Amino acid sequence: MKVLIVGANGQVGKHLVSFIQDHQDLEAKVMIRKEKQASYFKELGAETVVVDLEGDIPDIAKAAEGVDAIVFAAGSGPKTGPDKTILVDLDGAVKTIEAAKQAGVKRYVMISSYDTTREAIQSADSSFAPYVVAKHYADEWLRDTDLDYTIIHPGALTNDDGTGKVNAATTVERNEIPREDVARVIVAVLENNATIGKEFQVVKGDVEVKEAIDSL
C-alpha cells in the first residue's frame, strides 16, 4: 500500500514515514511544503512531492496520484494564530479530502484532536477554541463523504519515547500519548480494514498497539 502523508515534516509525520519505510507492505509518499525539507525523507528512501497545503485542491490531488491511502497529519502548530488554524487544520483538511475524491483515493486516515465534540468547543478557552472548531468541522466533512475513513483522536501529544502500548476505545480517560506511539497507531490502522468507518480516542496505556487497534 502506497500512502501519501500530508504533514510529513511534523513530529508525528516523521515517525510515521520512518515506520512505513521499514514496513514490508507499506510505502510512503511524502507531501512537504519546501524542497529543503526533502533530504530527511530521501535518506529514508521515501518519494517526496512539494505542495503547499494552503494551495489549491488540484495540486494536492496531483500529489495523491498513484497512492492507495492518505494520512492527514498536518497541523498549524501552537505558535500560530487562529488564521493559520483555519487555513491548515480546517481548510487544509477539507481540501485534502476533496483531493482524495478527485484522485480516486478511497482510504483516508485523519489525525484529529482528542475531543472535537460540540461540548468540547463550548468548554474550550478562547485560545484553544478555534483549534477545536477547526478539527470539529474537518471531522464532520470527512464523515459526510463516502471515503473509507478512520478518525484518530489522540490525547495530549508528548515527545517522550514511545512504549508501543496504548489505551484505545471510542472514549477513554484524558491522558497523554507519545507522538511516536501515535505513528504506530496510524500504521496499525492502515493494516486493519476493520477500522474503516470508525473513530476512537487513544492515549498511553498497557495494551500493545496492534492488539488495541484490532479490538476496536
TrEMBL record:
Gene3D superfamilies named among the record's database cross-references: NAD(P)-binding Rossmann-like Domain (3.40.50.720)
A Pfam cross-reference name: NAD_binding_10
InterPro entries on file: NAD(P)-bd_dom, NAD(P)-bd_dom_sf
Protein origin, superkingdom: Bacteria
Domain NAD(P)-binding positions: 7-192
Name the record gives this protein: Putative NAD(P)-binding protein
UniProt organism field: Falsibacillus pallidus
Biological classification of the source: Bacteria, Bacillati, Bacillota, Bacilli, Bacillales
